[in-house]
Amino acid sequence: MHYKINTYGCQMNVHESERLAKSLEKLGFTSTEDNNFDIIVFNTCCIRDTAEQKILGHIGKLKKIKRANPKLIIAIVGCMSGQKGKAEELLKKYPYIDIILGANNLESLENAIINLQQKHQKTICVPTDEKPEVIENIEYTRTSMPNAWVNIMYGCNNFCTYCIVPYVRGRERSRKPQSIIAECKSLIENGYKEITLLGQNVNSYGNDFADKSIDFAGLLERLAQIEGDHRIRFMTSHPKDLNEKVIDIIAKYDTLCKNIHLPIQSGSNNILKAMNRHYTREKYLEIVSKIREKMPHCGITTDIMVGFPNESEQDFEDTMDIVNTVRFSGAFTYIYSPRKGTPASEMEQIPYEIKSNRIQRLIKLQNQITKDLSKNYEGNVYRVLVEDIKDNGQLCGRTDCGRLVTFSGDKSLIGSFKNVFITRSQSASLFGTITEDK
Known about the structure:
The structure is a single chain. By secondary structure, the chain is α/β, with parallel strands linked by helices. It contains 13 helices and 19 strands. It has a six-stranded parallel β-sheet, sandwiched between helices. Strands 15-16-17-19-18 form a five-stranded mixed β-barrel. The protein has a three-stranded parallel β-sheet with strand order 7-10-11, with helices on both faces. Helix 8 runs parallel beside helix 9 (244-252).
C-alpha cells in the first residue's frame, strides 16, 4: 500500500506532514511520488484564499480517480478543515472524501483509517477545544536531513484581525522544556546539524506555564548549550514580544543563528492598529536597532501585507519607507485576501488593481535591496551548512544569517559545515567555492 501527502502552507504544516507520514507507515503504507497511491492526504492551509482555492481544485480532480478506484482513501486534514462549518461544506461538495481532521486532531488519522477499512465508516474530527492537551513524544518520519523542525508551542493568542490561525489552531500551548531539550539532543546525536524551532509566536513560549519557570530566552540558552556541532534557528517572532533578553542570548551563543524573521506586515501605524498588531513602526525600528547594535551582521527577514482594508496611498508609502529604512535581507510579500470569520473581512476592501500595483512596487524595491545587500557578501568567507544537491549537480546550503549559497563539491559533503568563499552574487543568491580559509 502506498501513500501520498500533498502539503500546503507554512513550515509548521511541512513538519506536521512528517508526523502524518509516520502514522501512515505504522499502518504499513510506504511513500510514493507518482499517482499509484492507495491513500492521499491533503495537509491544508487557509491563511489566504488563493491557497484554499488551489487545494479545492486538486480535491475536485480526484473525483474520476475515486470512481475508478473506490478503495482509494482521501483524507483532508489541517487548518482549512478546522474552519467553522468547513467539514460539512467539504462533504457536501466532495462526498467522496473519507476523512476530515483539523490541525489539532492529526493523532486521529490511524484510527480513522482503521475504521474506514474495517467498518467502512467515515471520520470527521475537527477542533472543539480551544486549548487541547499538548501531546509529547510525537514520532516523525523526518524528510529534511540535515535539517530538522521541532515544535516548541502550538496555537496563537494574538487575534490579528486578518488572521484565521487562532480560530483553527486554538490558544497558545507550550511544550515542556525538558521534552524539547531531549528531542533536540536526540536529533543532534543522530546527525542533524540544524534545528528550527517552530511556533506561531515563539516569543510567547512559557507564558502559559503557571510557575513561569522558563521563557523563550531561557529555552534558547539551554538549547544553545547542547554539545555538538550544530546550530539553531527559530520562527516566527512577533515584534510585540521580541525583547532585549532574547536578543542578548542570540548574540551570546555561536550555536544560535544570527537570523531573525520578524514580520512587520505594514509600516503604517494606522494599519498596524487596524490589524491589532500591538506595536508601532517606532517600536519595530527600536527592536531592529537593538538587533543591529548587538549583531551587526544579523539577517533580518520579514512578512509584508499589501492592500489591507482602508490602506491609503500614504499608508503604503509608510510601508515602503520602512523597507527602505530597515533594508531587509529578504521579505515575503503578499496581497491581503479576506478570510471569512475574521474582523478584517467585514471592513471596507480595496480594489484589486490598487493592491496589484502596490505589490509590484514593493517587490521591485525589495528585490533591489536584496540585490544590493548580496554584493556585500562577495569576497568574504562564510560557514555554510551543506544541505542539498541541485539538479545541475551543484551543492547548496545556507549561511548562519540565512543566505542561500551555491557551490561545487561532492554530494558526500551534505550534512557538513564548509567555509565558502563568495565569488559572485545574483539577486538573493550567492555563489562561491569551498576554501580552508576562515
